[in-house]
Design goal:
Chain lengths: 386, 489
């Protein structure tokens, strides 16, 4: 193949993933590459699978998009997050608070948890990890302060993320992006011309034909850009999710409460103007979840968990829920998206031969997902190990 | 090293450590140059740096100079430190590549303080601000490994390790579990233990001779299989770097210590005789030889399992990779660190050994790839050995790494592995493997602005070197020894 310099990128999106991707590329692309954002006429329903909490890495991620923390909390209903309170989890109905914090100290080069395990053998009551973590204590008391700098200040070990509503972040990014030089098209895809794994052209509902050098598909599982030969591989679980918003006047707490139930789980996330409720259930238990979810949900969707093995194939990269859907038990879904976009920025193809970029992107994508999947699996297997 | 590491970590525990050593078995005598990680090992043991340097006749090491590798007449230094500094979170070498591709030619080395300092024969300890030019580097040592072994033996014995002089001639295993239960020494003494650490060298007395663990032979990638080593008097000033010079059938090392210089020729006996290799080594010494040349035989590779049953192989018993990048001692350290982290109880859970082997396999694999890079990133085809490497099928892991670099200056990063991206940049760029492109994000900056920024980094690097003392003078003062004391006279 004759190599020619990459000149055009088109991002197709219908929600948070596509918008964040476009916003990221606007910040990092050199002038000679033309960027187009094609916004679908229908918003993604699966954005609620991005969850409601974001990790501490979000601060830097947004800053790189020129969105400062004051922007984030003043222009959306985002609140600070110190972690999640899990309650009634699993058959033993366990409860604990999982917070953001710097690693616990090493003593004599040995991880702190080994000492806790040792103490457990002599005095079980001393083995609880929560009293040693400042962020857990603050979360449980619903207090927050920015971690100060300084070596000997205990609060320095606290880290924080954000509690958010995907739709609020989507609107923020959309507004931000419209102020840039990006080509913005509102249209759906009519048809796609492919040649093996290369997307040659995309016909839009407004009659336009696009022939981008590089295509980014943020349209989710039903995208017409999807290469049908690619399998979506996962644990074979399909989940239902529903959300509603309960308005309130006072800014909420700094800790999401996630409660295990017979049908799945329910998370209440305090935001500035009220409580965001997310219920996730097995697809078989959706009716029961619906009965127990109050008030009536404003958004509902179902999604199969899993991921593509090669989200970047040919000249088309799939991002967001088309590439992988993750149960939003932890901040993992939004973390994974951020990492996907950071990785893309490092690997913007130089020309139309992008085998190296695709291979490396896919390698790191799979490593990230495998890591996150292991962590998520731990929520469901620990009881069996005890 | 293992006895010292374990005795330090387990000093307050009810674990008895016995060291079985034989003075009759000499040490190999390679591995006198090290990587920066050794400083952390010594620090963990509580060994004072100045005492250590005095006792092992050590010099500081800022990197390795490679001569004649990319092509005859080339030279470059692989430094222990970054090139320049990242700009907007992007590695510096991408900006350098852009400058280069736009006609602004300059040496990447000119943006590296440790290279410039090494080339000037200068050294100082890094300052507290590791982001500052002149402080953003690591350093290691070039030392007498025999003296280091003595220091560690003393250290271990002072912490309760019982040393037994002797050579293992027999061992017994539990009939049911296969765990090693005892070893018998030449004098008939029997030593029982729960865990055996086999540091018996190439022979692998327990890991191989007894347990028949098997050896993964990497000769198809790293075919050099012999070495001849000799010590000579030091000529000229004390140099803060090791030199590795490519030869017709291998390569030659030069490691300057305080009191002598270590030399050796690593070669593939298919293309040079032992006599000729010895002759070439002896005829290129920089000072009079002070020892007889010593012949070494090896096969590159590693044990199939470095932890098998209740035996852990550390050092040459676990594997051997030629000492081109001073990794021998580092791999020992990695083995000790992993063993301490995964220290078993007497039930010997397979998960501990599995994790240990997984980690060590990755360490060995990645060192192998890095060493092989030196042989394949070259335009040399002037001898049969160099032509052998031109036709080689590379391990996939290395092939992918080279392709990513060639295409866009991108460096594949892995969780495990001693050599970080700047090391790969050093060798690839140093051996003229130049990428076709670079990270496109660097095109956001105006070329003139980029030139101003990079010129400032270069200026600061040279200025920092100007303010750095001569290595010999610094060393003498540091170890509180008159400069005459570090001469060989």
């Amino acid at each position: 193949m004759t190599q020619s310099r990459l000149r055009t990128i088109a991002v197709f999106g219908n929600g948070l993933a596509g918008l964040l991707c476009a916003a990221k590329l606007v910040k990092v692309l050199p002038m000679h590459i033309e960027l187009t954002y094609v916004e679908a006429t229908t918003d993604s329903a699966t954005d609620i699978f991005f969850g409601t909490t974001a990790s501490p890495s979000t601060y830097d991620f947004f800053l790189a998009l020129d969105i400062t923390e004051p922007d984030l909390v003043q222009r959306t209903n985002t609140t600070f997050s110190l972690g999640t309170r899990y309650q009634d989890w699993g058959p033993e109905a366990r409860s604990w608070t999982q917070s953001f914090h710097r690693p616990l100290p090493l003593f004599n080069g040995v991880d702190f948890h080994h000492y806790l395990t040792r103490m457990k053998q002599s005095a079980a009551e001393l083995s609880d990890i929560e009293p040693y973590i400042m962020a857990v204590q603050a979360a449980e008391k619903s207090v927050f302060a920015h971690p100060p700098e300084g070596k000997n200040i205990p609060l320095k070990d606290v880290e924080y993320g954000y509690q958010f509503q995907p739709v609020a972040w989507r609107d923020l990014i959309s507004t931000q992006l419209r102020d840039t030089s990006i080509n913005w098209i509102k249209a759906d895809i009519e048809s796609v011309v492919r040649e093996n794994d290369t997307v040659r052209s995309v016909k839009l509902s407004n009659g336009q034909n696009l022939n981008p050098d590089f295509v980014i598909d943020g349209l989710g599982a039903d995208s017409k850009l999807r290469d049908k030969t690619q399998k979506f591989e996962g644990p074979g679980r399909t989940l239902g999710a529903m959300t509603s918003f309960i308005e309130g006047k006072q800014p909420g707490g700094v800790c999401r409460v996630l409660t295990g139930t017979d049908y799945g789980w329910q998370a209440d996330t305090p935001l500035q103007n009220g409580m965001h409720r997310l219920t996730v259930s097995t697809v078989e238990s959706v009716d029961e979840a619906l009965n127990r979810h109050t008030p009536s949900p404003d958004t509902r969707c179902e999604a199969e968990l899993g991921r593509l093995k090669n989200p970047w194939a040919g000249n088309c990269l799939t991002i967001g829920h088309g590439a992988g859907i993750f149960e939003p038990l932890t901040p993992a879904p939004i973390m994974l998206l951020q990492r996907d976009l950071d990785r893309l920025a490092e690997l913007i193809p130089v020309n139309n031969e992008m085998t190296v970029e695709a291979r490396e992107y896919n390698r790191r994508f799979n490593a990230d997902y495998e890591h996150a999947e292991l962590f998520a699996d731990a929520f469901f297997v620990t009881t069996a190990l005890m | 090293m293992t006895a010292a590491g374990l005795s330090n970590k387990f000093k307050d525990l009810d674990i008895a450590i016995q060291l079985v050593e034989s003075d009759a078995i000499g040490t190999v005598g390679v591995g006198e140059a090290t990587l920066p990680h050794i400083r952390f090992f010594n620090k963990t043991l509580g060994i004072d740096e100045q005492d250590f340097m005095r006792e092992t006749r050590a010099t500081f090491k800022l990197g390795i100079e490679f001569c004649d590798w990319g092509k005859l007449g080339d030279r470059y230094i692989h430094p222990f430190g970054d090139y320049g500094e990242p700009i907007d979170g992007i590695d510096f070498h991408h900006f350098w590549l852009r400058l280069l591709q736009n006609g602004h030619k300059s040496r990447l080395d000119d943006y590296s303080y440790p290279i410039l300092a090494a080339e000037s024969g200068k050294f100082q300890l890094p300052g507290p601000n590791s982001l500052e030019i002149g402080s953003n580097f690591g350093y290691a040592y070039q030392f007498d490994s025999g003296l280091y072994a003595k220091l560690l033996r003393r250290y271990s014995e002072s912490r309760g390790v019982i040393r037994t002089e002797g050579k293992a001639v027999n061992a017994t295993q539990n009939a049911e579990t296969g765990l090693v239960e005892t070893i018998e020494l030449e004098d008939g003494k029997v030593i029982e233990a729960d865990l055996f650490i086999d540091c018996s060298g190439f022979r692998g007395v327990l890991i191989e001779q007894l347990l028949k663990t098997g050896y993964e032979d990497w000769s198809q990638w790293l075919p050099c299989n012999r070495a001849v080593a000799v010590q000579c008097e030091t000529a000229g000033p004390s140099l803060p770097y090791t030199r590795a010079t490519a030869r017709d059938a291998g390569w030659q090392w030069r490691i300057p210590l305080q009191h002598r210089t270590g030399n050796g020729y690593v070669y593939w006996n298919k293309y040079i005789s032992d006599d000729e290799a010895t002759h070439q080594l002896m005829s290129t010494l920089e000072g009079p030889a002070i020892t007889e040349p010593k012949q070494l035989f090896f096969k590159t590779g590693k044990r199939r399992k470095l932890w098998n049953k209740n035996v852990v192989a550390i050092g040459l018993s676990g594997g051997f990779l030629e000492p081109l990048e001073s990794t021998s001692i580092h791999l020992i350290q990695e083995g000790i660190t992993a063993l301490i982290e995964l220290f078993p109880d007497t039930s010997f859970q397979p998960t501990d050994a599995d994790e240990y082997n997984r980690r060590m396999d990755l360490n060995f694999d990645r060192v192998r790839d890095f060493l092989l890079l030196h042989y394949v990133a070259t335009q040399r085809d002037d001898t049969q050995m160099w032509r052998y490497f031109r036709d080689m099928t590379l391990p996939e892991s290395l092939q992918e790494k080279i392709e990513a670099w060639n295409s866009r200056g991108y460096l594949l990063r892995y969780e495990q592995g001693v050599f970080l991206p700047p090391s790969w940049v050093a060798v690839m760029a140093g051996q003229n493997l130049m990428p076709k492109s670079y990270d496109l994000r660097v095109d956001q900056m105006e070329l003139s602005e980029l030139k101003t920024k990079t010129d400032a980094i270069k200026r600061d690097s040279f200025a920092a070197v100007d303010n750095t003392p001569d290595h010999g003078a610094f060393l003498a003062k540091y170890i509180d020894m008159h400069p005459a004391g570090i001469s060989t006279q």
